[in-house]
Design goal:
Largest sheet: none
Order of helices and strands: HH
Low-confidence stretches: none
Mean pLDDT: 84
Shape: globular
Number of strands: 0
Distance between the termini: 31 Å
Strand content: under 5%
Number of helices: 2
Length: about 70
């Protein structure tokens, strides 16, 4: 599987590292990337400014750890 990387600025990197340890950042990113890819498949002419990230109620608990 190919790995894709993108650079982020130092401020963003520090903010990610400062997030609470209980927050599973990778799960959020997996979901965001899958939604992003779905939208690009529908309309490949989209540009970064066409995307807005907002908070909504959790609908998909597939990435949630079971206790």
């Amino acid at each position: 599987m190919a790995k894709y990387t993108a650079t982020i600025d130092e401020d963003t990197r520090q903010r990610i590292l400062a997030l609470p340890r209980s927050l599973h950042f990778a799960a959020f990113m997996r979901k965001a990337i899958s939604v992003f890819v779905e939208e690009l498949e529908k309309d490949p002419d989209l540009k970064p400014e066409n995307f807005v990230i907002t908070v909504t109620a959790r609908k998909d608990a597939s990435d949630r750890k079971r206790k």
